[in-house]
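DUF3305 domain-containing protein (Pseudoduganella chitinolytica), 162 aa
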Amino acid sequence: MHRKPLASRWQPYQWQPLEVLIAPALPADAGPRCLRDDPADLRWLFPGFELRLYSDEAEGYFLNVDTDAPCWFVMWRMEEIDGAEVAVPRSVTLSYNEAARLMDGGEQVDTVPAPALIAERLREFVATYYRPEPKRKRRKPSFEGGAGVEQMARAERARHGG
């Protein structure tokens, strides 16, 4: 996570995810650590995230890879670490739908470009598991007429003596 200063009198800085690193597993005791502590450039590393793809999220993955720039979705919250307010990532996903649900729930979600290797693997997963919903035949709405409307009109006339 990266905190950068802003030229604003209302908000002195902005937090944002800088990068999602794909790295071999770190030791179990590896926790968050400050990589750079400079007023102009504060950076924190948060290891320990695991990515799992679920077949029932295939539509969300499709919506991500069907864009010009597939991305990671990082949900984060402000928390206190060693007496300092830090933006702490709580989940990382590749599903557009999951990110939308998180945002609908009031969470802060930002994007980070996904590397080509991740985008390619995600496309392979989508090709295997995503099956678009078949288009269903649309029934005519009642304002376009039909037997149901005629029956409702007869009932209304009968009720009002006409």
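The chain has one domain: 2-159. The chain is about 25% helix and 30% strand. ok done for today
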